[in-house]
Every structure is written in C-alpha cells, then in structure tokens.
C-alpha cells in the first residue's frame, strides 16, 4: 500500500497486508519501506513467518527486497523484529536504540516470543542511536525519540518526506478507531515510564503517523497521542 510517493506499508496483519495464522491480528506489526536514491529503508520487519509476503508486497510496487540496505527497529517485540535474523543474514544493516539492540541480541523474554508460542531468534544490531539524536541515512534526517513504557526499547523516528512531517511510532500508541496505548503484557512494561513517554510524545506535532499496528493517521496524529495520554492518566493511577 502506498502512503506517499516512495513510502509504502508492506506488512501488517490487522488489515491483512500480511497474514500469519488464522485469527491472528497481532502476530505481524506494520512494516514500512522508504524508497531512497541510496536504497530501501525498512521500518520493522514482522514476525519472520510472513517475510516472503512482505517481499511479495514490495515486488508489487517494484521494490526489490535485494535493495533493502537498512532496517530501523521501533522496539524488540517478536511481531516487529522476529524476521531480523533472516534479514541480517541477507546483509541488511539494523539500526535501533540500545535497549532494543540488547534485547534482540539476546532474544530473551523482552522480545515476547512467549506471547506467540514461538522462539525469537537473536541477531545483532549494527548501529545504535540515542534519544534526541538525528540519524543521517540515505540523505534523510531521522529524529530519534526514545519513548519507553510499552517496552523499554520503544523508539519513534520522525522525518520529513514529500512536504510532510512523518513519524514511525511503533507501539507507543495503538491506533485503531481512537488513540490508545499499546499492549501492557511485556516483561519490561512500565506504566509510570510509559505515561511520561506519552506526555513527551503528546507535545510533538506531525502530519502522518505510521503506527506499529492498525490505521495510519493522516490528520493531526497528536490528537491521538493526547487521547492515549488521557487514557493512561485515568486508568493507570
Ligand atoms: Zn510491541
């Protein structure tokens, strides 16, 4: 699915762009591709069992999987990073914040394999980023925003594309029909830290939000973050 010129959603099982198991709606987080003149940048890579579907979706848009140079991870959960070991073996370079890199390199319960009755196969992240850093990649500036809580590795990436301010937000907020926060079953879930992250994220204006699951928001995504913050403040105190 093309979102903007050169920006695509290529994975995600809630709307059936990819499909893992019957009845599964959360096995495959959303994954996105940015087409740059220096190669393809993938955001998150799904659970691994759907990688060929992601590749097929890319080929439909004339995007060769062989042209993926980098994969940027929003957090280490299985539905977002499970395919990492396969892509890494294909030579794709991984980028993430330290907490995510640490989790995927161990493949431990911070990666939530238990939730899917699957084993998370560990892999190495090649380049670490830090909160507040601007990542320069393929001629694009990505602002790194660490937003822990859903998992300690949660990170959003903000960049300008085709005249829009875009954020890839992972599971910091769920985006179904209203803004809501992400799943709270992670081993390293933390309500207090999550609420602080929502407060921080609620100050940020963007034009388009590409979430880890569900609907892409094309109008004032900040409103959805404020809704999630409101829910957290009411339910988690
Ligand atoms: Zn998650």
TrEMBL record:
Residues 28-213 form the Metallo-beta-lactamase domain. Coiled coil: none annotated. GO terms for biological process: antibiotic catabolic process. SUPFAM superfamilies: Metallo-hydrolase/oxidoreductase (SSF56281). InterPro entries: Metallo-B-lactamas (IPR001279), NDM-1-like (IPR050855), RibonucZ/Hydroxyglut_hydro (IPR036866). It comes from the Bacteria. Belongs to the metallo-beta-lactamase superfamily. Class-B beta-lactamase family. This is Metallo-beta-lactamase domain-containing protein.
């Amino acid at each position: 699915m093309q979102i903007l010129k050169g920006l695509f959603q290529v994975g995600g099982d809630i709307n059936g762009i990819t499909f893992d198991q019957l009845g599964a709606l959360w096995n495959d987080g959303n994954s996105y591709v940015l087409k740059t003149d220096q190669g393809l940048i993938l955001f998150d890579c799904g659970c691994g069992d759907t990688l060929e579907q992601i590749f097929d979706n890319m080929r439909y848009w004339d995007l060769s999987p062989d042209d993926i140079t980098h994969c940027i991870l929003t957090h280490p959960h299985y539905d977002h990073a499970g395919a990492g070991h396969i892509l890494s073996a294909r030579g794709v370079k991984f980028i993430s914040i330290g907490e995510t890199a640490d989790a995927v390199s161990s493949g431990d319960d911070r990666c939530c394999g238990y939730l899917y009755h699957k084993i998370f196969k560990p892999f190495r992240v090649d380049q670490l980023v830090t909160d507040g850093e601007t990542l320069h990649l393929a001629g694009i500036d990505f602002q790194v925003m660490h937003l822990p809580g859903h998992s300690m590795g949660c990170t959003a990436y903000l960049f300008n594309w085709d005249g829009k301010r875009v954020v890839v937000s992972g599971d910091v907020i769920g985006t179904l029909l209203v803004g809501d926060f992400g799943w709270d079953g992670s081993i390293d879930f933390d309500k207090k830290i999550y609420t602080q992250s929502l407060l921080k994220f609620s100050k940020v204006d963007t034009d388009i939000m590409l979430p880890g699951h569900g609907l892409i928001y094309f109008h004032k995504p900040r409103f959805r973050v404020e809704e999630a913050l409101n829910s957290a403040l009411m339910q988690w105190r």
